[in-house]
Design goal:
four-stranded mixed β-sheet
Length: 148
């Protein structure tokens, strides 16, 4: 893979130059094809911010009484949100395709050890993925931040 710029399709997660450098190194380390990986940020790289709340982030389950639903940005469906701030984290999720012209679909901070499933309204999921997403998002939510 060349040192050319890697296109990021969904780039609204506050990545700074050190995060982008780490993201490029992460992409280089992946075999050709589609990948989803959680990686620890290296020493000296600043914290990222994570909006995830729920058991995967070390919290109790987020109850339905504590959330609201809102369509964020250009997404086709509403996200399960909670009126809490995002939090610092030391892990990054990178989702992309490695090859001659690598593309990163998204890269974002998380406290979780595993990537979060897509949201329940994502029509590209297979039936078993839809069940996993529904189960996950029943007890997780995203920080509303300024949106709440």
């Amino acid at each position: 893979m060349s040192e050319a710029k890697i296109e990021i399709k969904h780039d609204d997660h506050g990545l700074k130059a050190p995060h982008l450098d780490h993201m490029r190194e992460t992409v280089k380390a992946q075999p050709p094809g589609f990948f989803v990986v959680v990686t620890e940020l290296p020493k000296g790289c600043p914290d990222l911010r994570s909006a995830l709340y729920g058991p995967a982030a070390g919290d109790f389950a987020i109850l339905e009484d504590d959330v609201f639903y809102k369509v964020r940005n250009d997404r086709p469906g509403p996200s399960r949100l909670i009126n809490r701030p995002d939090r610092p984290c030391r892990r990054m999720v990178v989702v992309g395709i490695n090859g001659d012209d690598p593309v990163v679909f998204t890269a974002y901070g998380t406290q979780a050890e595993h990537p979060s499933p897509r949201e329940w309204w994502d029509g590209a999921m297979r039936p078993h993925e839809t069940i996993e997403a529904a189960e996950f998002w029943t007890e997780h939510a995203l920080a509303a931040g300024e949106e709440g």
